[in-house]
Amino acid sequence: MKIDQFEMERMQSTWENLVEMDMSESGVRPVTLRELGEMGLDLDAILDTPLTYSQSNGTIPLRENLAALYLGATPGHIEVTNGTSEANYLLALTLLRDGDEVAFEVPNYMQFWGMPKSLGAKVNCFHLRIDQDWEPDWDEFDRAVNPRTRLVYLSNPNNPSGSVLSHDAMQRIVARCEAVGAYLLADEVYQGAEIHCARTRSFWGMSDRVIVTSGLSKAYGIPGVRIGWIVGPPDVIAECWTQHDYITICPNKISDAVARVAVKAENREKLYVRTRSILQHNLPIMQAWVDSFGGFLTFREPRAGALCLMRYRSTTPSYELCERIRVNQSVLIVPGVHLGLEGFLRIWLGGKPEFLTEGLRRIGLELAGEASLPA
Length: 375
Ligand SMILES: Cc1ncc(COP(=O)(O)O)c(C=O)c1O
What we know:
Blueprint: H1 7-15, E1 21-22, H2 33-38, H3 43-47, H4 60-67, E2 78-81, H5 83-95, E3 101-106, H6 111-118, E4 122-129, E5 135-136, H7 138-144, E6 149-155, H8 167-180, E7 183-187, E8 210-215, E9 228-231, H9 234-247, H10 253-262, H11 265-291, E10 297-298, E11 307-312, H12 318-329, E12 331-332, E13 334-335, E14 344-348, H13 353-371
Parallel strand pairs: 1-12, 3-4, 3-6, 6-7, 7-8
Antiparallel strand pairs: 2-9, 4-5, 8-9, 10-11, 11-14, 13-14
The chain binds pyridoxal-5'-phosphate.
Pyridoxal-5'-phosphate binds at residues 26, 83-85, 109, 155, 159, 187, 189, 215, 217, 223, 228.
């Protein structure tokens, strides 16, 4: 199976541990095991845990805790995976066949751009329109979601815009999926990372065509344990489990234990509050920095997620600009081209304030030269 390189992930894995400042992230700075210990994780019990395989689709207690987050779900509706990325991958392997079509929201995390093509499926894009408060382009959407469409993929809240779909838009998307018989795969990994607005509504429960993926990496601030999950119809979940047996067998045993604690209602709320306070504190710093460029940079404040997507007024390709920033300033940020949107940069909002300030200062040194060029 030939697959295109996942440009953003490859750029990150090549450079994120070599640069002085990695600002290509999209979650908040991670919590520690000690902090999770304070939330009830029994660290001593972990020291004595025999490192066996874990339950391959997730332990029953973890699936029970997760099912409690999704109205009407039971452990049979849940598959626990190694990150949201594995959750998405299992679904692609389970649902897509040669000749199928996939509708893909742009801009986006580009995993579902590369995977379907490697399986012989055709990817049809529909865009979120920045000038329409990131509302989908409905003409494009209606063309992209047609009777040959097996699956529609979107992220809500969206990476990289940080936008959240209105309830009307969600209903319209679901209705169209039902009309053509497509599954809707809603990647909700940023749910819970809202900055000022209310909690993002889940697509879960809107139709039996809806499948949700999520995980601990973003709103929970726990990417390193690599826990994600799928919530879906039990027949789809059963097939994903079959794929899972072939790929990684099971999630990590310690990670399953960490996740059981993190997703408990009271801890989840604490983690979300932590995320929100980091983002609320940092957003004005980012806004002031953007404003200091006198119109060279523009952005719509993200509603959720530790991501700031900004447009810059220059014709320099975003990859070239990011490379210059990396080489000259040792700061890694994401070029818009890696997210389906040329002419934009994505900068991390989830670090410590002093880290953010210094990173922005360095990026600014490079952008200042760019801003003085004719647009
Ligand atoms: C929309 C989206 N889905 C999935 C992932 C991967 O998440 P995980 O770390 O849970 O595998 C990311 C990571 O940036 C993402 O932005």
